[in-house]
Amino acid sequence: MGVLTKGTWVLVADGEKALFLRNDIDEMNPDLNVVRIEQQENPSDREQSANRPGRMHDGGPGQKSAMDDTDWHELAKERFADDLAEILYKQAHKGAFERIVLVAPPNTLGELRSKLHKEVSDKVVAEVDKTLTNHPIDKIEALLTRELAA
């Protein structure tokens, strides 16, 4: 069985940002989509977003539509691994995912690994020690496909 099977979650993180994705197709053609995680401890994306969402022109004259900002969860640097481990534990406990791939720079990956609850670490099917938080989702899909095929 491959790594990035349908339903597998992918956590892309660095020392302060995290993006929770789920593969909705298969490992040959991954289709990663943002998982919306509702939690009281985490302010809404609108409150934590640094930018105003982009605008795009609609077909009608002078009309514009808002485009969603990517739903990054920004966590306090000093509690980052703890907060992330807690979110993952709650989601795993609810049965939100059976398999997860962790993608983060080596230091963040090591810190996160040390904080994960056994219920989460048992579901980790791969780790990729790269910083991908500055990449668009389609680029993350391509890089992961290449990385996990090796």
Determine the fraction of residues in helical runs and give it as a percent range: 25-40%
Q: Beta-sheet strand percentage?
A: 15-25%
Largest sheet: 6 strands, mixed
Output the CATH class name. Answer: Alpha Beta
Number of strands: 8
Terminal residue distance: 14 Å
The CATH architecture classification is: 2-Layer Sandwich
What name goes with the CATH superfamily?
A: eRF1 domain 2
Instruction: Please name the CATH topology.
Output: Nucleotidyltransferase, domain 5
Computed structural class = alpha/beta
**Unreliable residue runs:** 40-44, 48-58, 63-67
Molecular shape:
globular
Spell out the helices and strands N to C: EEEHEEEHEHHEH
On the 0 to 100 scale, the average pLDDT is 82
Radius of gyration: 16 Å
The structural domain count equals 1
Count of alpha and pi helical runs: 5
Folded structure, characterized:
By secondary structure, this protein is an alpha/beta fold. The chain has a single domain (9-43, 72-149), classed as Nucleotidyltransferase, domain 5 (2-Layer Sandwich). It has helices at 45-48, 80-93, 106-115, 118-121, 137-149; strands at 9-13, 17-23, 32-34, 55-57, 64-66, 73-74, 100-103, 124-128. Strands 1, 2, 3, 6, 7 and 8 form a six-stranded mixed beta sheet that branches. The chain has a two-stranded antiparallel sheet with strand order 4-5. It starts with 8 loop residues before the first strand and ends with a helix.
